[in-house]
Amino acid sequence: MKKYILSFLSLLMALVLAVCMAGCGKEAITLETFLSYPEQSFDSNYTSTGIVCENENWQLAWDNVTKRVSFVEKATGYVWGQIPQEAAAPQNQENGSIKKNHPQLESVIQVIYQDPKSFDDVTAYSYSAAVQSGGVYAEKVDNGLKVTYEFLENEFSVPVEYTIEEDSFKITIKPTQISEGEEFKIHSVAVAPFLCGMKNDAENSWLFIPDGSGSVIEPFVSDGVGSIGSKFVYGKDLSYQSYSKSNTEEQINMPVFGAKKGDNAIFAVISSGSEAASINWNIGSANIGYSSIYPEFRIRGFNYIQRPENFVTTTTLGAFKVFSEGIVTKPIEIKYFPLSGDKANIEGMAECYRKYLIENSGLEKSEKDEKIATFKYIGAVIQPDFVVGIPTEKLFPLTTTKQALSMTEELISDIGNDINIQLLGFGKTGVDIGEVAGGFTVAGNLGGAKGMKSLVKALNEKGINSFMDFDLVSFKKSGSGFSKSNSAVYHGGQVVKYTSFDTVSQMANQDRFFVLSRNSLSTASNKVKEKAEKLGLSGISYASLSKVVYSDYGEQKYYICGNMADDVTEIYQSSSKAGFNTLSTNANVYAAVSSDYINDVPIYSSNYIVSSYDVPFYQLVFKGYRPMSSVSLNLCSDKEDALLRCIEGGISPSYTLYYNFDKELVTNAHSFIFASHFDGNKKAIVSTAKGVKDYFDSIEGATITNYIRLSKTASVTEFDNGVYTVVNFGDNEIETDYGKVPAKSYITGRGE
Description:
Mean pLDDT: 91
Helix content: 10-25%
CATH topology of the domain at 35-91 and 101-360: Beta-galactosidase, Chain A, domain 5
Shape: globular
C-alpha cells in the first residue's frame, strides 16, 4: 500500500509540475468545459410511443419501451434506425426463446473515457449503462427529439438530438451540453454505430469508406470479435506522436461513409466537427451478427507523459494520457441521405455528395482546362557531406530554373503544352524542411529570384501553368519572421514537434520538426502572396497545407484540429482574390473545393484486409468540377495498373522528375531519387501521353454520370457527353456488353 501511495504521489507531482511549467508567464485562460454532472437534473416530457414529428419526406418515431429512435422514409417505407431494421423485431430461437440483441448493437452511442486507476481507455455502451438502468430522458425539440443518456455509474450524461430535414435526417451532439463528474474523464463519443449496420454475409450489400480513392467492404462472418478498425478523417493529427505507419497507408480526404442494403442505401456526411472525427468499422463479428461503419469524435485532447518509475497500475503502457480541461465546442453533426433504386450505389453516393458540396461549400464547375499530365519538378535536397573529414550537409541542386525550362521544352516538343508544372523544393533547403515556406525565396544555386522570374515568364508565354510550392506547416529553423515562439503547443504548453517517415520503410526518420501555430498561418500566407508577386509567380502550390490537419492548444478554437477547414479555405480564397492560381496535393475536400487544380489524387485505398475492392469515389465527385492529376506514375510499383486507374476515374497522370543525377545521391534518404531522373523517364512519359491523348481529349470537362462495377477486377465509367470506358484490371480477357476487353487494358467508345 505504501509503495502504491508513493508511486501515486510521484505521478501527481509530475502532473503538477507540468501544469506549473505550462502556466509560467501566462495569464489564466477561461476554457469552455463539460457541464458539472452533480448540478444536472434529468426529466422526460415525452413518454409516448409513436410518431414524434413528420414532414413531406420523413417521419421520426420513438419507442419509449426500447428507447429507440427511428426514421421512416415515406417514399419507400424503409426504416433507418439506431439498429438495423431486421434486428428491430424480437427473433425466436430454435428452442422457442427470444434471442436478445448484443448490447453493442442496441447502443446508440459509445462513450470512451479514461479509467482513473489504470489510466486505460474504457468504453461505456448506452444500452448497458443507460437504457437498462433507466437513465434515458426524451423531450421534443423543433423537427425532432432530444434524448439524454445518463450513465449513472460513471456520473456523466450525453444529450443527443435526432431531427428530420427536407431530404435527410440528422444526429447532433453539442459537447458543451455533455455533463461529467470529477472522476471519469470523457474524451471521445462514437455515434449510431449500427445505423449503417447489416447482417453478416448479407447479399447485395456493402459498406463504403472513403479511404484513399475509396473502398467497398462486403460483410462477412468471422470468429469472435471480427475485424475492428478506425481511421482519422483528414489524416492523423500532426500533434499526435507516431513512430511507424503502414506502407499502404492512404488518407481519408472526405468526411463521408455509407451503406448499401439491397435496393436501398444510406449516405452519411459529417457536416460539423469533421476535423475531430474518425471513421470506424466493425466487420464480421459472430458475437454481434452484424457489420457496420460509423463515426467517432474526439472531444478532449491529450498529451503523453512517461510513467514514473515503480508506479503500480493495471496497465502495461509506458506512458499516460493527460487530457486537457477544455473541450471541443463545435457541435457534432451527421446528416444521413437515403438512396434507392438505381441511385443506391457508389455513383449515387458521389452524386449526393457533389450536390451537398455545391449547396454548402460553393463547389462550382471549373473554368480551368484539364491537362494531359502534371509534372512535379524537384529543385533540391539536403545531401550529407564532409569538410576536412567533419560530417556536414549541403544543398544539392537537382533541378535549376534553367534546367526546369529545358525539361519543359523537351516535353512540349513531344507531347504539346497541355501540361501543368509544380515546382517543389526550390526554397533554401529544397524539399527538406528548414525555415517556414522555404524562407519565402528561391535558393541561389537553383537560379534565385531572377531565375524563377525568367522561368515563370517563359512558361506563361508557352501557355503553361506553373505553381511554386510553399510549406506553411512545418519548420526546423528560425527565420523569415518565424521562430519557436510561433509553434503550435500542447495543452500543457509544451511545443508540438513531429517526425517525418521514410517513403519506403515508413519508419520514423531521425528528425523532429516544429509545427507553425494555427494563428500564424494567415500571417505566413500573406507573406507568401507578397513574395509570390515579387517572384512574378502566376500560381501557388500549398502541398502540405492541403492535406494535413493539426491541433494547437494555444487557443480553444484550435483544439482537436478545430477550424482547420475554415482556415485553409480562407487562405485559398485570399490567394485566388490576389490573382494567383492554386494547386493542392492529395487535397482534403475543403482544399479541393477551393483549389483550381488538384495533384496527387489518390487512386488506391489502404488495402485493408476487410476491403473487397477499390472505387474511384474521389474522382466520381470532382471529375468535371476540378482538373485533377493522379499520384506520380513513375513512383508507383505497378505503373500499368496505376495508369488504368487514371483511365477509370478520368484523371490525367502525374510524374515526379529532376534533372541532375550524381552517384553521391545514393546516400540520400529520399527514395524518389532512384525513380525520377528525367532522362530515365522521358521515353515512357511521351509514350504514355501519346497513347492516352485521344481518350483524355474525348472526356475533357465531362462529369461522370454512372459507374458500374462489373466484378472486383472490371468496371464501366460513363460520362455526361456519352463517352464510356470499360477497364479490365484482371489477368484474363473478359467479355462485356460493350465488347471484349483484353487483360490489363481498356476499351472506350461513345454511346447513342
